[in-house]
Amino acid sequence: MSGASRSLARSRPRYGEYVVKAVLMLAALVSIATTIGIVAALLEPTIEFFGEVSLGEFFGSTTWGPLFSPPAFGVWPIIVATVEITLIAVVVAVPLGLAAAIYLSEYASVRTRKIFKPVLEVLAGVPTVVFGFFALTFVTPVLRDVFPFLDLEAKNALSAGLLVGVMIVPIVASLSEDSMAAVPNGLREGSYALGASKMLTSVRVVVPAAFSGIVAAIILAVSRAAGETMIVAIAGGFKSVFTLYPGNEMATMAAFIAQAGSGDASVGSVAYKTIFAVGSLLFIMTFAMNYLSARMVQKYREVYD
Q1: Per-residue pLDDT tens over the stretch 158-211
Q2: Exposure string over 50-81, b if 16+ CB within 10 A, otherwise e
Q3: Closest CA to 257 of 293, 224, 290, 283
Q4: pLDDT by residue (tens digit) across 99-131?
Q5: CA–CA separation, 40 and 283 (whole Å)
């Protein structure tokens, strides 16, 4: 091919690339527009709510009952319940998820990985209402039989947290395994050359090298757990009590939104606006966790040539 022909080939417009670029940009804009729409939908009712209920009353009290008479707007009981159930879920999901990720990345054969990883990810597709009923009808009775000293109520934070943890295991495992698989084999081979075992290489070399991706997976799973609704509503209950004991029934922020949004609060009332205030607070909490995830990924990211 002559020089003129090569120049013509290089300058010929590639319409397919422009179409792909436009589609990708549209997808990004849809995501941004959705976030802006959520903020806009929450903002006005939240401002109206705090025009009638002070920040001091909202954050300075431990009594929550906006649907009762007289109403109480101390938000701490549902914040504590949300954090408590999320922590229980993290205690379950992180060890199981990381162990599964290490096995799939470092020990499993290619054939085993192709079978096990899709099966593990199917767990993420199980409807959360199924997890909720499983926790209520199976996990709680088993815990009562095995640990009678726990004094569990019929609905309790412990069972809800355990099943939320099982639900987010695929998030931790799948994303962490992807990060570990991206670690160059040269690091593993160098470790083996120094006499390290496979386990030592996995824990001391691969996991630190994939640390940023693992942290991002964990924080994403935590955000998912904090916003879970059906499991905590069915297995955790709707009782808004300021307590740290996981054997008690307690309502999370998402559970309260589900309860109040089911028709108990009349549109335009303070109780109705409470839904948006709690939703805004939950949105801010999850946004903060995702922002923290992005910062930690940027800080600890390893770049390999």
Answers
A1: 999 999 999 999 999 989 998 898 888 888 888 888 888 888 888 888 888 888
A2: eeebeeeebeeeebbebbeeeebbbbbbbbbb
A3: 283
A4: 999 998 888 888 888 888 888 888 878 888 999
A5: 12
Residues 6+ apart with CB under 8 A from 211: 300, 302
C-alpha–C-alpha distance, residues 80 and 94, integer Å: 21
Q: Which residue has the tokens 């996995």?
A: 202
pLDDT band per the 50, 70, 90 thresholds, residue 8: very low
Distance CA 274, CA 238 (A): 15
For residues 241 and 77, is the Cβ–Cβ distance under 8 A? Answer: yes
User: What pLDDT band is residue 6 in, cutting at 50, 70 and 90?
Assistant: low
Rounded to whole angstroms, the Cα distance separating 159 from 163 reads: 6
Tokens of 65: 């009952």
The structure's pTM equals 0.85
Q: What does the alpha-carbon distance between residue 39 and residue 42 come to, in Å, rounded to a whole number?
A: 5
H helix or E strand, kind and range, residue 253 = helix 253-259
What's the rounded Cα separation, in Å, for the pair 153 and 245? 11
What are the DSSP calls for 255-274, one per residue?
HHHHHIIIIIS-TTSHHHHH
Give the C-alpha separation, 74 to 60, whole Å: 6
Contact 206, 177 (CB under 8 A): no
- Of 207, 204, 147, the C-alpha closest to 176 is 207
